[in-house]
Design a protein that fits this description.
single chain; about 220 residues; alpha+beta; Arc Repressor Mutant, subunit A; 3 domains; three-stranded antiparallel β-sheet; elongated; E2F_CC-MB; DNA-binding transcription factor activity, RNA polymerase II-specific
């Protein structure tokens, strides 16, 4: 059990050491390295360096020039080191995507749970699910909407909403439907004024009726 626990850390350190060794080999003139200097530069015992060179020698990527000197005889080192870095980047990207997928799965799970609670609630049981709605009080309770102009739009499916690039003095919102009327409600969520109408009792503008004021 002790050996099994230490093996992953040993393997990880050997991989890191190999990458550092390859970086030194890449920058060495003619791909020649002195193993004594390598051990000193990397701060490890020479036998750890031999762990690397023995493997590289066995697959015919290096050759011994002398007792403590080796030379790279494999493919272009720029391609070898570059591919290793590219592979690591792909692994990191895959890890990030996996984490994002887990986060999205958790969000979907939470949403499904909340929808289940909403439909399973006895107080909501008398209302069909497809007739869910928000009230004026719901909108007023949202802190971010305070002192803001809020417009509620009730439109059929596949309604298109476009917001062109805002101009200096105004913002335009284009809403278009081919499957029925569009109702627009102005919901005042600021401080109420005496006698002011709210979106609960305010008349709506429909796509089938003409507004009584100038279009601008």
């Amino acid at each position: 059990e002790t050996l099994q626990a230490k093996k992953p850390r040993f393997d990880a350190s050997l991989v890191l050491l190999t990458r550092r060794f390859m970086a030194l080999l890449k920058n060495a003139p003619d791909g020649v390295l002195d193993l004594n200097e390598v051990a000193t530069t990397l701060g490890v015992r020479k036998r750890r360096v031999y762990d690397i060179t023995n493997v590289l020698d066995g697959i015919h990527l290096i050759r011994k020039r002398s007792k403590n000197r080796i030379q790279w005889i494999g493919n272009n080192l720029d391609q070898v080191v570059g591919k290793a870095r590219e592979q690591q980047n792909l692994k990191d990207e895959l890890s990030d995507l996996s984490a994002m997928e887990e986060a999205l799965d958790e969000l979907i799970k939470n949403c499904a749970h909340e929808i289940f609670e909403l439909t399973d609630d006895k107080e909501n049981a008398e209302y069909p699910f497809n007739s869910s709605y928000v009230t004026y009080q719901d909108i007023r309770s949202i802190q971010a909407f305070q002192e803001q102009i809020v417009i509620a739009i009730k439109a059929p499916e596949e309604t298109r909403l476009e917001i062109p690039v805002p101009k200096e003095d105004h913002i335009e919102v284009h809403v278009k439907s081919t499957k029925g009327p569009i109702d627009v409600y102005l919901c005042e969520v600021g401080k109420e004024k005496p006698g002011a109408k709210t979106c609960e009792d305010m008349d709506t503008f429909s796509s089938e009726t003409k507004p009584s004021v100038h279009p601008d």
